[in-house]
Design brief:
- It contains 8 helices and 4 strands; from the N terminus they run ααβαααβαβαβα.
- It has helices spanning about 5-10, 25-35, 55-65, 85-100, 105-115, 135-155, 170-175, 210-215, and strands at about 45-50, 125-130, 160-165, 185-190.
- The radius of gyration is 18 Å and the shape is globular.
- A 4-stranded antiparallel sheet has the order 1-2-4-3, sandwiched between helices.
- The structure holds flavin mononucleotide (FMN).
- The site of flavin mononucleotide (FMN) has 12 residues, from strand 3.
Length: about 220
């Protein structure tokens, strides 16, 4: 598989089979992904890999955790402008349409969102942390790492879904992972093999035409 093919084929997968992925395979992909560029070669990513039995322990931890928390950061800006707002809206509506969930069926929508907090049934996950000292340029470096990892996973036939949703559960996740105090959570990534029968995995998101975001000057 060449890079163009990996870029074209990677999609967010939101229902996984229980087929396991070897820790060695995932470690290898993560090490390869660390060739991702970062400003000044700071390499701000700090990754926690949860797999196999530890994933079961993690799920037990999640089910036992009752402490309410406020999100570690706001995922989208307040009053998200157009055309960003419509892009976000359409992606959600296309997903709910595939699942046959209507706009006013709030319980079904919440239940779907809550699947984030089961990593969509994935057998493995990574949690991507960085030092509190870091600012927006280093957040973007984390994005470099994540996309590199996700493309390498695609090449290896492994599916992923990045998950900022975990910003709403940073305390809970950190109570399990026990990161150093100076680390904060950016996001998780659910990892495994897609459930080919799940309608949600048929979602192919749109992209804006280049005329929206490209100016050749
Ligand atoms: C940093 C990041 C965080 C994301 N967080 C979530 C999330 O919490 N839950 C979710 O279902 N999808 C999440 N996504 C997936 C996006 O919704 C998805 O990438 C976008 O709709 C484009 O679809 P595609 O990945 O299938 O191309 C996230 C993606 C990125 C890059």
């Amino acid at each position: 598989m060449d890079v163009s093919q990996a870029v074209a084929e990677r999609r967010s997968i939101r229902a996984f089979s229980n087929e396991p992925v070897a820790t060695e395979t995932l470690t290898e992909l993560l090490v390869k992904a660390s060739r991702a560029p970062s400003g000044g070669n700071v390499q701000p990513w700090r990754i926690f890999l949860v797999n196999g039995e530890r994933m079961q322990d993690f799920r037990s931890h999640l089910s036992e955790w009752t402490e309410p928390e406020t999100p570690a950061y706001r995922v989208y800006p307040e009053g998200l402008k157009e055309p960003y707002r419509s892009s976000r809206f359409k992606c959600g509506e296309d997903m709910y349409a595939l699942l046959g969930i209507s706009r006013d069926d709030k319980p079904a929508r919440y239940a779907r969102l809550a699947e984030n907090f089961d990593c969509f049934g994935a057998p493995a996950a990574i949690f991507c942390y960085f030092d509190r000292q870091m600012g927006p340029p280093q957040w973007s470096d984390l994005g470099m790492f994540l996309q590199t990892f996700m493309l390498l996973a695609t090449e290896a036939g492994i599916d992923t879904c990045a998950q900022e949703a975990w910003a709403a559960r940073e305390k809970c996740v950190s109570a399990f992972l026990d990161p150093a105090d100076e680390l904060r959570l950016f996001c998780g990534v659910a990892i495994g093999y897609r459930d080919t029968s799940a309608p949600v995995n048929r979602l192919v998101t749109d992209r804006e035409p280049a005329s929206v975001w490209l100016e050749v000057v």
